[in-house]
Amino acid sequence: MVNVMDLPEEEFIYPGTRACAGCGMALIYRIALKALGAKTLITVPASCLTVLHGMQGFCSTKISVYHTPFATTGASASGILASLEDKGLEDEITVLAFAGDGGTTDIGIQALSGAAERETNFIYACYDNEAYMNTGVQRSGSTPLGVKTTTTPEGKLVHKKNMPKILEAHGIPYVATGIASYPLDLYEKFKKARDIHGSKYFHILSPCPPGWGYEPKDTILIGRLAVQTGFWILYEVENGILKLSRASSRYLDPSKRKPIEDYLMAQKRFSQMTQQEIEVYKTYINDMWADINRRIQNQD
Predict the structure, then answer these.
(1) For the segment 165-213, what is each residue's pLDDT rounded down to a tens digit?
(2) Residue 129 has what DSSP assignment?
(3) Nearest 5°: phi and psi at 264?
């Protein structure tokens, strides 16, 4: 098990990026690069991460980054890997695709699905801030029920898309969820994924202060509440076998979960939710956990 002393001191992101204060994505990116190391090539679509990288001609990382159009992340990763294979470097360099939920669950799903179907040997990480934050907070397929965005001013009417299950259905060897509020869990999963051959998919909840409506200092707190209320379940699926992460395993017992209201009411984006919608959330969370529990029981 990883402890804080195992983390490398080297940083792969220069200080002074253009990310917002309290940005969950910036923390996720920092942890991922620490786990994967210098021998990594990154491809990124239009997203908040392109803002973090900086204006044209500059880049805030010490690692090479290829910026691509919104829909092409999976395809560009496939092309990068093909070039490495042509040079005999595919076993030396990790190909990392890093995209937001809009560029993954919506605009980029075709290219990602194609890459996974071809068994492309890369890591794809979706940092899920649950809307198109970089273009003005429009709803995405990953926006949760009841969330107020500029395109859902009365609140979104349906639950978010379950992207990890969609990628798991492709038969890839590794799928994992994560969040920056539990950095050692995230670091350990990226380290593991680096050494697995084939397509690896991460879906990482990424709290966003301006888009979610909370103070930047509370990013870690919001992320922990997401896990502690059972809204965000930390797990990994390796070759079809699901394993709950340590931070989430205790919440199989519903009595140990915090009330979902603690998470929802800490964010302005949920401020107009009705009690009826909150009850829907309670059922939604219980159903998610019941499905997880059935899977675990059937594996035994």
Answers:
(1) 999 999 999 999 999 999 999 999 999 999 999 999 999 999 999 999 9
(2) -
(3) -65, -45
Q: What is the pLDDT of residues 89-127, one digit of tens each?
A: 999 999 999 999 999 999 999 999 999 999 999 999 999
Number of helices and strands in the chain (H, E): 11, 8
Q: Which domain, by its residues, includes 272?
A: 6-299
Following DSSP, what letter does each residue of 141-202 receive, concatenated?
TTPPTT---SS-TT--SSPPP-HHHHHHTTT-SEEEEEETTSHHHHHHHHHHHHTS-S-EEE
Cα-based torsion angle of the residue sequence 38, 39, 44, 50 in order, rounded to the nearest 10 degrees: 20
Residue 1 lies in a domain: no
254: CATH: 3.40.50.970
Single out the residue of 83, 101, 102 nearest to residue 92, CA to CA: 83
Could you give the CA distance from residue 211 to residue 231 in angstroms, rounded to a whole number?
18
On whether residue 271 sits in a domain, the answer given is yes
- In the numeric block, the tokens 């009826």 are attached to 276
